[in-house]
Amino acid sequence: MTFVVPPEWAPHKAMWLGFPSHAELWQDDLEAAQAEVAALARALARPGGERVRVMTGHPAAESTAREMLGDVPGVELIQGKFGDIWLRDTGPIFAGGQALAFRFNGWGGKYALEYDDTVARQIAITAGVPLVEQDFILEGGAVDHDGRGTVLTTTQCLLNPNRNPGWTKADAEAALSGSLGARKVIWLGEGLRNDHTDGHVDNLARFVAPATVAIPVAWGRGDPNAEAYDDAARRLSGMTDADGETLKVVRIPSPGWIDGEDGPIPASHMNFLIANRAVIVPIYAKQPGDFAVGVLKEVFPDREVIGLPSTAILTGGGSFHCITQQEPA
Using an 8 Å Cβ cutoff, are 45 and 75 in contact? Predict the structure, then answer.
């Protein structure tokens, strides 16, 4: 039986969160990344907020997590095994009381890390829900859901031959319909520059309410993703959702150019996380970070919008949305 994936703003039973655990991967950024993830966990677990289930992937990291979070009400530490913390992509997608597990190949074979292909099963067992395995490759960050059967994605990622070779749009739409309850798939084009995920949509465009999509607008001179942002906005202009309702587009300031070793890194305020009572926004610089928070406060008037640093986490390639997965109530 097919279920529609709830929207992220629907009530959560728990929020799963990956804790940076492997020094050989994070190197000099490990302690700073652990501190940023701990701050995220504390913000999520504020009174009346989330049940936060923090998965660690190494005994030393479990000890560190316990020192940082062991006395925080609402935070539970889970011993697990993973290659790295990107639970949005390696973990399951929850829907209809089930944990949907997709094949995982290290983002097109770029990062094949031990245990990453077992994370979905580990989470399902700990959550006590049935695991339903799907026979195609998909990462959770490649799709975004409105809870009414409309799915956002990008051709750059979903039709990339390094995932499901030979897939057409019709093939992808049939797979998303049969597994995630998609009644309509909205195709965007290219994702962010230098994004090793090959253009995950959760860095580019996000549903923030029924028939409402947030997309960045370029910030500062030389924003490396200005063209991708405007192309996404143009594609959505005049489009309708699965129920035939015309989509509204909200533009949110991007972080602009954030330097990395090999050019700009894929920093995005779109990697925000919608929690039961809050929206947590990754911040890389005070401006335009404060402006992004301000716009999201208007979008989410019923939630506290909190900006938190995510510079160290970004050195691993993602941010708050990438390291989490919500379990619907």
Answer: yes
Q: Among residues 20, 320, 314, which one has the least CA distance to residue 195?
A: 314
For residue 87, the one-letter residue type is L
Handedness of CA 166, 171, 173, 179 (dihedral sign): negative
C-alpha distances out from residue 54 to 6, 75, 323, Å: 22, 7, 10
* CB of 196 closer than 8 Å to CB of 157: no
Bond prior to 266 in cis (omega within 30° of 0): no
157 as an active site residue: the answer is no
Could you tell me the two tokens for 10?
């629907």
pLDDT tens-digit profile of 14-46? 999 999 999 999 999 999 999 999 999 999 999
Catalytic residue among 61, 213, 280, 322: 322
Query: If you ran DSSP here, which 8-state letter would residue 148 be given?
Result: S
Pairing of strands 278-283, 304-309: parallel
Q: What are phi and psi of 169, to 5 degrees?
A: -60, -40
Q: In degrees, to the nearest 5, what angle opens at C-alpha 273 toward C-alphas 8 and 39? A: 140
Write the burial class of residue 65 (CB in 10 Å: 0-12 exposed, 13-18 middle, 19+ buried).
buried
Give pTM, 2 decimals.
Answer: 0.97
pLDDT number for residue 193:
96
Q: What is the distance between the alpha carbons of residues 87 and 18, in angstroms, rounded to a whole number?
A: 6
The DSSP line for 169-235 is: HHHHHHHHHHHH--SEEEEE----TT-TTSS-GGGT-EEEETTEEEEEE--STT-TTHHHHHHHHHH
Q: What is the pLDDT of residues 176-235, one digit of tens each?
A: 999 999 999 999 999 999 999 999 999 999 999 999 999 999 999 899 999 999 999 999
**Helix 30-44 vs helix 59-69: crossing angle, to nearest 10:** 50
